[in-house]
Predict the 3D structure of the following.
Amino acid sequence: MKDERTIILDGDSRLSVVVVDCVQAAAELARAHLSGPTASTYLAQALAGAALLGSETSQVDETVTFRLACPGPLEGFLVECTEKGTLRGYTNKKILNDFDGGTFKDAAVLGATGTVEVIRSIPGTVLSSGSTATAFALEGGAGYVSRALDAYFAQSLQRRVRSLVLGSAGEDGVPTLARGLMVECAPDGDKAVFDRVAALFDDGTAMKALGGALLSERTLLKKIGLAQAEIRNTAPIAFACRCSAARAEEMLASLPPEARRDLPPSIDVTCHMCGRTWTVSNN
C-alpha cells in the first residue's frame, strides 16, 4: 500500500472502519531523528495511531495530537496528524541500547502504566481534549498502544471502538511496518456484529490480516467479517512538518538581547518534531 487512509462503512451493521498505512512517513521521521530500532518501532505505532485519530478531523487547519507519557525507558511519544493528512512527531528517547537488537516486551520499554492524551485543536484554540491512564503489561509491539487508544475512546468519549496498530523496524532503525485499523460501532449499530469483529482482534486474526505482506482493504475486510462493507474514501497521508528557516529566525529573534549577546554569529536550531536542523544568523 501507499501511505494512505481509507474510510469504510458497513451500512447493514452500522460499523465504520478506518485503515491506514504510513510506513513511508515513519521511515522519513525515523531517519531524521536518527532513531534506533526500538524507538522507531514505537514511532511507527504512534504515527499509525495518530493517522487513525486524524480521520475524525473536520475543520480547516485542525490538528490531532496523540501523546503518551510513561515511566519506562522510552518515556513516551508525541505525534500529530493534520486534517490534510500530514504527520510528524517524535519519541522522547531515540536510542535504547538495552533493547535494540533483540525482542522486548511493551512493559519493559514503556512501563506497566502510562497516560494517553488526545488533543484536537485549530491554531489558537483547543477544540477538545481527553486523557486516560492505561495499565497494560503486554508482550509484543502491538498491545500497549492499541489498547491505550481503545481506553481513550471508551473512557473519554464513551464510544465502542477496537483499534490495532502495528509497527516494526529493521536493524538500521528504519521502520518496515506502520499500519493501523479501527472499527467502531455506531450508537445504533449492530452490537452483535461488532462483538464478532472484536473477537477477531482478540484471537490474532485481525493482526495477521493487517500485518500481511500484500495488504488490500478488500482482503482485510473479508478476514474480519465485513466483506460487504463499502469503501467510501481513500486519501493520501504523508510526513510533513511546519518548521521553516523563517520560524527558526523568529524563535531566535524572540530571545531577549542579553540572551543573544553570548551566542555565536550562526545558530543551529533543530526542530524537535521532525529532527530537521536550520542554520540561522544571530545578527
